[in-house]
Amino acid sequence: MKLGRTGLTVGLALSVLAAGCNSGNPAGSDEGKGTKTLKELGKDEKASIKVVYYDKNAFFNQYGNLFSAKYPNIEVQVVETHDISGPGKDMKKEFQKLIDEEKPDVLVFHSPDLFKEWANDGKLYKLDEVIRQDKFDTENIVPSVMELIKSKGDGNIYGLAPYFYSQALFYNKDLFEQYGVPLPKNKMSWEEVLQLAQRFPKDGQGDKRIYGFARNSADWSVYGSENKALHYYLMRQIGATSGMSDIDPDKGVTLQTEGWKHALSLAAAALKSGAVYTGQTGEMPASANSEEERLKQDLFVTGKIAMTIESPYMIGNILQAKEKLKDVAPVNWDVVTVPVDPKNPDASSSFDVSEIFAVNANSSSPRAAWELVKYVNSDEMARLLSKTENFGFLSRTAYVKERDGRSLEPFYMLYMSDSGLMNGDEKIPPEFHDPYGEMAGIEIQAVIDGKKSVDEALRTIQAKGQEIYIRAKQAQEAEGRKSG
Q1: pLDDT tens digits along 400-418
Q2: Nearest-angstrom CA–CA distance, 283 and 303
Q3: How far apart are CA 343 and CA 471, in angstroms?
Q4: Which of 158, 369, 417, 483 could bond 124 through an S-S bridge, CB–CB 3.0 to 4.6 Å?
């Protein structure tokens, strides 16, 4: 299954896809013994299990068909969850209702924090003992993935994740060498990254114009030159690196801090310098009618940007461009880690997992459920999935070592930050983000133009942002009453 940007967004939005409805100890086990009682299935012993997943076809295409071929004696049914979200719906309540009715055996979490909640409430099997019993290999799973899983289970293993998602700082080695700029390093701060960006020339015209940095290679196709939201998202990304979030789901906008003052100052200075690409060089490009046109609109692929922060998706673009764009010189690329907080240099707000498979503590077929969880996360499954194109990385280290001769370690060198922009994000009305981002970007532009101080802009963003948040919340609640 190929997970593009839209697919990932849908996956993150369904962050309530976890389960277990009744707390207590796992059926058939003593407290603290976890899955010791999970004896292996007999060769001809039949079992039937239910799996909670957002879409039946997606599950079978990705995992189910392979599992069924391996274990024909285990019947797998999928409980779909794509209908539990929508305007005015409380996804957690809808999902709880679904679990009460369907009683699934295998649970799939799209939110590490929700996974933690269910694990700590005793609603999931603790898998440590059965992992030892079956000699299941976790040593060759990316350490940062296992560390994330254990951190959410108070040091224990309550689930396993076949994929992880991350970003890295891509850079164009030829541009750095051409202009005598030192190459990027792992664990740089935002100040260091933006200082490097400002060492590139800013006087080129048309096709000769290059930029030191772009926040994201696809931003131009999303926002365009008239929308200043890119300014805001740069500030927000800088803040997230230090573990800050400007939105509290319960309180609204929370920008009146020294940390956000620093993030806005840094973003505005970099934008004012001309080193950061903002899409203000002309009209928004027309929609691509072919894969070649789409690739030509990617400024990193075409050698116009020295650095950009991207997901593994960028590697696919680079390799496709090398094959399909005969009139464009292939970019000589490499990667280092995303910018970090110097006070916490081993953590990243861009590292995450979006599918954690776990066994419901109330499963009537826990051994069969574990067989599915185990197989989905096995080396055999990873080997098969490695032949398909995916948005994320497989968690098995054997399949994430290098690509196109480049080490991929910067993607998984850092651990997941305890604070992240997605914490509680499902509670924020979707209608809030666009008007808030554009308004904030306009205020940052006022700082760039010298029309407002940083303090004045922050006060305006806080006040106007809170108004936008309250209106969005009221609309959401009204829709909920209407549909309820």
Answers
A1: 888 899 999 999 999 988 6
A2: 20
A3: 37
A4: 158
pLDDT of residue 215: 78
DSSP per residue over 176-238, as a string? HHHTTPPPP-TT--HHHHHHHHTTS-----GGG--BSBBS-TTHHHHH-SS-THHHHHHHHHH
What are 453's two structure tokens?
């101080």
Which residue from 373, 397, 303, 348 is spatially nearest to 108, judged by alpha carbons?
Answer: 373
From the CB of residue 471, how many other CB atoms can be counted at a distance below 10 Å? 14
With 0-12 CB in 10 A as exposed, 13-18 as middle and 19+ as buried, what is 435? Answer: middle
Within 10 A of 56 (CB to CB), how many other CB atoms are there? 16
d(CA 175, CA 126): 51
Exposure string over 363-373, b if 16+ CB within 10 A, otherwise e: bebbbbbbbbb
Write out the DSSP string of 351-414.
-B-S-EEEEBTT-SSHHHHHHHHHHHTSHHHHHHHTTS--SSEESBGGGSSEETTEE-HHHHSS
The residue with tokens 């604070």 is: 419
Q: What is the spatial distance between Cα 192 and Cα 137, in angstroms, rounded to a whole number?
A: 39
The whole-angstrom distance between residue 167's C-alpha and the CA centroid of its chain comes to: 8
Q: What is the pLDDT of residues 241-279, one digit of tens each?
A: 998 989 998 889 999 899 999 999 999 999 999 999 887
Give the full edge-to-edge strand order of the sheet including 74-80. Answer: 74-80, 47-53, 106-109, 356-359
- What is the DSSP annotation of 257-309? SHHHHHHHHHHHHHHHHT-B--S-SSSPPPPPSSHHHHHHT-TTTTT-BSEEE
The two structure tokens encoding residue 177:
């060498």
CB under 8 Å to 101, separation ≥6 — which residues?
A: none
